[in-house]
Design goal:
Largest sheet: 5 strands, mixed
Shape: elongated
Helix content: 10-25%
Strand order of the largest sheet: 10-17-16-12-13
Radius of gyration: 31 Å
Order of helices and strands: HHEEEEEEEEEEEEEEEEE
CATH topology of the largest domain: Immunoglobulin-like
Mean pLDDT: 88
Strand content: 35-45%
Low-confidence stretches: 10-21
Number of strands: 17
Number of domains: 2
Length: 254
């Protein structure tokens, strides 16, 4: 009888112990030490202009990283993270499609990173993708007398720099002075045409002549080329107010 009681007690302890063990998702959460895997980071539109609202989407999946449900997701644009939402309305599955939106404020290259957190509070590694902003302007030029490659222009003379400018969105002619920062140029090797764009200087007109917007988005800048440019080569371009620049033109000064 004593042996039976003792055996019954041991059996009862084992049953109660098994009953106390976590099951299903609870057990998975205890065993899960890996963060979810992020993939398929995409943007729409893919190449936006500054001021455009962009939607970023991604998939956050814990299926092969512990099997916990996804708790949250977040994204960063060149810096701090912001929360994302589940595309189906709730974070309650092991794999979630997620979405977020932002307004582009930085010209040039932008980096967006997405990361997820599972219900075991494991944060996955961020996955990043880059996009480059486009100009809000459509540039047509340079118009004669300049060409893409203009050789042997005499240093010290005034060169009429002409172009047309319209809004890329709807083709509206642009005449707002704020659209143009200035006409700039930098020194380059006359053979390889290589140089450092960061050394570009803002060029000037003769006397009190300024950049002028004409009708239908036509612009003209009378460039008073310095005599010191004689025997050198330069690349010239127009810098726009949105931070982008026009195509360049190569000039060999004589």
């Amino acid at each position: 009888m004593r042996i039976f009681s003792r055996a019954f007690s041991i059996l009862l302890v084992l049953v109660l112990g098994i009953a106390a063990l976590p099951t299903g998702n609870a057990f998975a959460a205890l065993a899960d030490t890996q963060g979810p895997v992020t993939s398929l980071v995409t943007f729409a539109p893919a190449s936006p202009a500054v001021g455009t609202t962009v939607t970023v989407t991604a998939t956050v999946d814990d299926t092969d990283a512990g099997g916990s449900t996804i708790q949250s997701a977040e994204f960063s644009v060149n810096g701090a993270f912001s929360p994302m939402t589940a595309s189906d309305g709730a974070f309650d599955e092991v794999s979630e499609d997620v979405t977020g939106s932002f307004t582009v404020t930085q010209q040039g290259k932008n980096t967006v990173c997405v990361q997820g957190t599972d219900s075991a509070n494991n944060v996955g590694a961020p996955v990043c993708a880059d996009f480059t902003t486009q100009s809000i302007y459509t540039f047509t030029g340079f118009l004669p007398p300049l060409r893409k490659t203009s050789k042997f222009i005499k240093a010290g003379r005034v060169i009429p720099v002409k172009w047309n400018l319209k809004l890329a969105a709807d083709g509206t002619p642009v005449s707002d002075p704020a659209a143009i920062v200035g006409v700039e140029s930098y020194s380059v090797d006359c053979t390889t045409m290589s140089g450092d764009p960061t050394t570009a200087v803002v060029e000037k007109g003769p006397g009190k002549t300024h950049l002028r917007a004409q009708h239908a988005g036509k612009w003209i800048f009378n460039w008073k080329t310095p005599k010191a440019y004689k025997g050198t080569c330069r690349v010239m371009f127009v810098m726009f107010g949105d931070g982008t620049m026009s195509p360049t033109v190569f000039i060999n000064f004589k």
